[in-house]
Amino acid sequence: MIGVYHYMTVAAILFAMGTYGVLTRRNAIVIFMCVELMLNSVNLTFISLSRHLQSMDGQIFVFFVMSVAAAEAAVGLALMITFFRNRETIDVDQINMLKL
Amino acid sequence: MYDKLWLIPLFPLIGSIINGLLGKRFIRNEKVIGAIGTGAVFLSFLVSCKYFFQLLGDPVKTHQNVIASWMSVGKLQVDWGFLLDPLSALMIMVVCGVGSLIHLYSIGYMHGEEGFYRYFSYLNLFVFAMLMLVLGNNALVMFIGWEGVGLCSYLLIGYYFEKKSAGDAAKKAFIVNRVGDFGFLLGLFTIFWALGSNGVWTLNFVEIAENGHLLGFGGAVVTTATLCFFLGATGKSAQIPLYTWLPDAMEGPTPVSALIHAATMVTAGVYMIGRMNVLFAMSPVTMGVVALIGAFTAIFAASIGFAQNDIKRVLAYSTVSQLGYMFMAMGVGAFTAGIFHLMTHAFFKACLFLGSGSVIHAMHHAMHHAHLDDDPQDMRNMGGLRKRMPVTWATFGISCLAIAGIPGLAGFFSKDEILWWTFGSSHGSIFVWVIGAIAAGMTAFYMFRCLFMTFHGEQRTHVKAKDHVHESPWVITLPLVVLAFLAVVGGYVGVPAVLGGSNHIHHFLEPVFGHAQEVYRIGIKEALEHNHAIEYGLMAVSIAIALIGIGLATMLYLKRPELPALFTRRFARLHRAVFNKWYIDELYDAMFVNTIKQFSLLCWRFFDVKIVDGIVNGTGKVVSAISAGLRHTQTGLFQNYALAMVFGTVVIVAIFIFN
């Protein structure tokens, strides 16, 4: 029987993968995708716990998270395009101009 | 009945505010500014007159008028209160009376000056402060006035602030006065503490006088306190050792010298001793110090007056000398005589100063007309002005006679009363009397030297300017005439019994001074009290000394004008010492001013630069060194920050789980 623990475990694995990607990858697009992965793992916990607790709250939250993620994607892509225009790269190692 | 006393200082305050705020931009008209300034003081004079005459006919002689509470701390209650008794009534009459005449005079004298409005604003502010000083019913209100007159003195000495000497003189006056104020405050604290430890927490003069006996006759506390107060008086009233500022104060406009540095402010010290007479009477040591300092100042300043050529400086040293006379009187317990001399001196010295101002005004005008750079205040450029300025000459001459102590004029009665007390008082001594009598002769000599050099003999003015010296306009001569009249009749309020008078002023001031004189047995020695022969004899001696002084001056400066130059050559060294004021300024510079300057340099170059700045800069350097180390944690790479964030989150979660 697949219970709420299994869902939670999958979500935790997804979250850890996303975190690892964010910390280690250099390509901004990939980092971006990893962030999406983290968000979706959270969505998964929301949904599964919503079901488990017989409450609609988690599902409503998921809609919020999805809309925020959509907005973030739009803003993030715009930033990356602008950055690419200036530096001809989207490698985050190169994005260190705020350093003193 | 006496509930509008606050009106007296209010008028000049309003006048000062109006002229000070609106004078430059909105009023601008000299006549209006002058009228506001003079009118304000004159209104105060009218109110003062009303209360003065009301008090004359009132059997109760001490009235307090409290308008508001100032502070109430524990058992101490300090009010915005005024005190009218014979002493303060006399003072407000002198301050407002002489003050309004000098305001009137100033309209003519300051005509065409750029800072006309500023001048009148300061002068009104001065009158306000002086009235607070004499009317305050407690020591703190008096202290406001005390500091206020010092401030106005500073502002008015530095009136021609574009001249360096004026600025320096103003600073000197202020700083020397601060030394005295320090003494005043210490005295105040001592009295407050000493009375408080006896259960009377008060600064009110009436209560201090009533409870003064708690301190114990001749005790160390009361001696210390009164000596501190006397230090304050030496600062304000230009006595040894703090007299040096007054001659330099002549840098201010002449009417200022007349009002502040001759007639009113410098007498504040004498007034203060009169106000605290109970305390002073309780300390014979202090009384002795006051009498001796006064006597030495009288003779010392008179000696400097011998060799000065600047007409105002002669008068300045004369003022110092006459103030010494007043302190001498206070010191031998002749409080009434001291206040009496204060009043007569205000009349004739104001007249002398205003007369010198009239001369300077005319000389300045003439020199300006002839495009000359000669000093308009130097008596060597004057001489023979009698015919050109008859009114000024007459009033100046009358005042010279009055200050010299010629019988029948104001100065005679007051000076003679003082000399009689120095001789016959239980606190007096023949030594003080001798000094006083010699100083009287010297006064007569240098005043007539001044008169003769200015108004008699050949006119030594430059040929081109000679015929442009004219008599001053009526606004200048009218105050001269009024003051000269007062210098003649002012003495008749205090004709001694031995001359068939009834000494009105003595009886008038009795309620203020009588108590202390009775309790502490200050008075003419019993053996002398009814010995008219000695009193007549002393009178004759002082008249003779005055006549000798005048005779010498006539001899040297009228009959044989070549003699003074001969003396100067013969005793060149002595003359140089006197001319340079016995090098006291140089001595003070070497002893105090330069020492303090050296100390300040040390404070600056070592303490301030090395220690204070060192601590401040050191703090900055430590912070920036730490920051330089921490800077390396900021790599600019967002993944490092994200790692730190994840790590932090893990730690927080771990704490939650395992706690």
Q: Can you describe what's shown?
A:
- The complex is a heterodimer of chains A (100) and B (659).
- Chain A is mainly α.
- Chain A has three helices and no strands.
- By secondary structure, chain B is mainly alpha-helical.
- In chain B, helix 3 runs parallel beside helix 15 and helix 8 runs parallel beside helix 13.
- Chain B has a two-stranded antiparallel sheet.
- Chains A and B meet through helix 1 of A and helix 27 of B.
List keywords for this structure.
heterodimer, A: 100 residues, elongated, B: 659 residues, mainly alpha, 27 helices
Strand arrangement across the biggest beta sheet of chain B? 1-2
Unreliable residue runs of chain B:
none
Shape field of chain A: elongated
Percent of residues in helices of chain A comes to: over 70%
Assembly state here?
heterodimer
Major sheet of chain A: none
| Mean pLDDT level of chain B | 90
Sketch the topology of chain A as an H/E string, one letter per element.
HHH
Q: How would the global form of chain B be characterised?
A: globular
Low-confidence stretches of chain A: none
Largest interface: A-B, 12 and 10 residues
Average pLDDT confidence of chain A is 90
Secondary-structure content class of chain B: mainly alpha
Distance between the termini of chain B: 84 Å
Give the strand content of chain B: under 5%
- N-to-C series of helices and strands of chain B: HHEEHHHHHHHHHHHHHHHHHHHHHHHHH
Q: Let me know the number of strands of chain A.
A: 0
Helical percent range of chain B?
over 70%
What's the Cα radius of gyration of chain B? 30 Å
Category by helix and strand content of chain A: mainly alpha
Our count of helices of chain B gives: 27
